[in-house]
Amino acid sequence: MKYFKNAVAVIMLSIAPALLFSQVKPLDADLTNYQYPYEAHFINLKSQNNDLKMAYMDVKPKISNGKVIMLLHGKNFNGAYWKQTAKDLSDKGFRVIIPDQIGFGKSSKPQSYQFSFSQLAENTKAILDELKIDKTIVLGHSMGGMVATRFTLLYPEKVQKLILENPIGLEDYKTFAGYQTIDQAYQSELKNTAETYKNYQLKFYYDNKWKTEYQPWLDLIAGWTFHSDYPKVAWDAALTSDMIYNQPVCYEFKNIKTPTLLIIGTRDRTAIGKDRAPKELQPKMGQYQELGKKTQQQIEGSKLVEIENVGHLPHIEVYDKFWNALYDFIM
């Protein structure tokens, strides 16, 4: 009888992940069958001998206040997770532009592409040029904070204000973690599952407290792992991980002259390559309660809003606190 109970327990543990993620729908590389919260538009790019499509949402207010804000997504996301932010901004009169970077979301997944933050910034500028937008507020989250930083440094005349929400790249990961080849990164990406993605998000984003409102943003990346297109997505994910590791922006914060706000969830411990760093260095990585203050000191005249006991995703985990900090700064 004891053996039978143990066997049942083992079986239940083995099928639990399958039951947990049974509602996740397979998604192709370009999220063809996934409907964004607002209509997806596309521009055609000829870049590095590739013919590419770059997706974006353009949310226009009923009554305009004359201001434009551009929202830049993180590495494990796409523009869709800005749904609530875009709605509230639009309700306040802002025109909201939400790109999917090349390699992400509904945009093309080139398999031969040199990813760089400068290239992503240039691609992003192409959307503004297409829409004839001369100036915009720029908000970047996570990897989007690195894109936003590079965009601001390259095109300062286009940026009215800069907001960095728990950006990665506040430290140089090369000084902690050893190098991982793109091939090694690709093999690691191929091992991702809905379960590993959720475990990562629980650890770094939500402090092991899962809520149903987090599920849609997990399903978007988990759905790729159930589709035959996943190797394409995994390859671009490996390329962009290499970009983040090898192209730090932290040494150039001192060059930003644009009015800047840092919104920092202080519980965040996100750091690229932490698992490859020596054991004694791992606890020193991703200390956002220290990195936020250090970065504020580097960006002249910048403002810091720390949100205590919040992880990597303030605009999902504690939306009201995020919104209050954002709106106070942009009005």
UniProtKB/TrEMBL annotation:
Molecular function in Gene Ontology: monoacylglycerol lipase activity
Signal in keyword set: yes
Which Gene3D superfamilies is this protein grouped with? alpha/beta hydrolase
Give start-end of the signal peptide.
1-20
Alphabetically ordered keywords of this record: Hydrolase, Signal
The source organism is Chryseobacterium glaciei
Protein known as: Alpha/beta hydrolase
Q: Which residues form the AB hydrolase-1 domain?
A: 68-271
Which BP terms in the Gene Ontology apply to this protein?
A: acylglycerol catabolic process
Give a Pfam family name.
Abhydrolase_1
One Gene Ontology term, aspect cellular component: membrane
